[in-house]
Write the structure tokens for this entry.
Amino acid sequence: MANAIFSSLPTTIFEEMSGLARTLGAINLGQGFPDDPGPERLRAKAADLVLNGYNQYPPMAGLPELRQAVAAHYARTQGLDFDWADEITITSGATEALAVSFLGLLNAGDEVIVFQPYYDSYLPVIRRAGGVPKLVSLSPPHWRFTREMLAAAFTERTRAVVLNNPINPAGVVLPDEDLALLAEFCVKHDAVAVCDEVWEQVVFGEARHRPLIAWPGMRERTVKIGSAGKMFGLTGWKVGFLCAAPALARSLMRTHQFMTFTTAPNLQAAVAWGLENPGDWFETMPRRLQASRDRLADGLRREGFSVLVSEGTYFLNVDLAGSGVAAGDRDFCLTAVKEAGVAAIPVSAFYEQDPVTSIVRLCFSKADATLDEGVTRLARARDLTRRRPATSPA
């Protein structure tokens, strides 16, 4: 007998669209990975460590040098004061860190507030841990929550809230007033905030990422999750950071111990070196991505698409209805990949209830030529969908 929660899950939209892109030879503006191979010095360091470094079991909680480097990085960049020995655990990617948080902190019947649109691993693991998701729907173009929305979601059974900031797929960096409001509700209801902050270094222009853990009353009730893969554009490395006060961290460490136990030591050591010797990476990387964002957005606007604001992540969104497209987002994306040769992601896939069905997410961490051709093919997909009657979203 299979587990009912996981065995009933459909193929993810990322696997579906990327699989179609591979099969059909389409441009992939769907799944979020860069064309750029990542910092050369960091990759060279990792290669050297594979050949000449330590390749046996590292400590369960992570190499001390990486935990120290993570603490120092957050002190420099966000003014946070973590005790590396008691408050930081290295995980096999941020997805494992999320699973550790849900399995380590939830008991049967605990309610967990989740904002839609969400990362697709949240709900199945929350349910496997015995938690009960309470969904709060955010809407374009601003993707903000209000006091009334939080008041309706928080109850005496609320154990945790999951916050993704900067938000994928919305591309929004939450303003201080939203974070202060959420902190107020967490303190009032004695709820833990599980903060998925993997995009914290990928923020553009005047936008600034502020971690929820820095708000009054949140230091002892926040789990902060980061990702070396997102920080350095090396999405396959799967090295995550799990940061929390000791009372929470003890349970998280024990859960991690019996999930993956540890993470590749050569990659851990390479990430430690990269955090300590970043050069100008954390300045130049966002600037390059911002230029790619602007190139894709400008090209789409010239073709008549309505483009939503993107303040961070690798993604921007197109409003189909505002672009004169009557088709739903899934229908449009299937037409785009099958008939126009470009893969995109329907944002309705990030909802479980009452989905927004007119928004399409595009990844701009690609080469200029890829983005330009992607614009041409998306315009072709728009023209194809305009010629046929709209159907209900699948």
